[in-house]
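Appendix B, Record 12. Input sequence as logged:
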Amino acid sequence: MAPIVPTLRYERVHWREGRSRIAGVDEVGVAPTCGPVVAAAVIMRPDCKRIPGVRDSKTLSAAQRERLAAIIRRRAVAVGVGAASVAEIDRLNIYHATHLAMRRAIERLGAWDHVLVDGLRIRGFEDEVGPYTAIVDGDARCYSIACASVVAKVVRDRLMTRLAVRHPGYGWEHNAGYATAEHRLAIRELGLTAFHRRSFPTIQAQRSDRKSVV
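Logged structural output:
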């Protein structure tokens, strides 16, 4: 089945009403057992032409994402990136930490008129960012959110690749911190690092009898 191509129909509703700074927001890194959660917010010009190939970042290869992220940054009116650390994930839980990363990304835009966010409605989110629209499968259906998903994925993957140099053996350079068989085996053999999310059940199961590394 061919991947869904995101459209600008959500943005056009606001552009027609004079709101020009429409921010698409998405996050990556909710499911991995280590590393931060990263969000991006992207504002594209009103009535812009879609960049060919932009779609949900999960349907793209790493090379495609890298190429598209550079084009998105050149063409965007504004791009904001925010993250929540492992310590914040463990303290707040992944749900609240994800929304913290989103708010940080939005705040780095400088100004915005309306936010389009991937997923379901978020309690209290409007109090923090103002009017917003939650779009289920927004990274596949909404162009600005798809752009944000590409930028966020590239930023986080680069970070995990750098962390992999400091902590070799876990395969973060290609598994991005997900609990692959290779990653789980490395945890058993090498122990936990400071970048593992100790609040996650997968990690908790291995804490009692495994050392931690720094």
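The CA atoms of residues 53 and 64 lie 8 Å apart.
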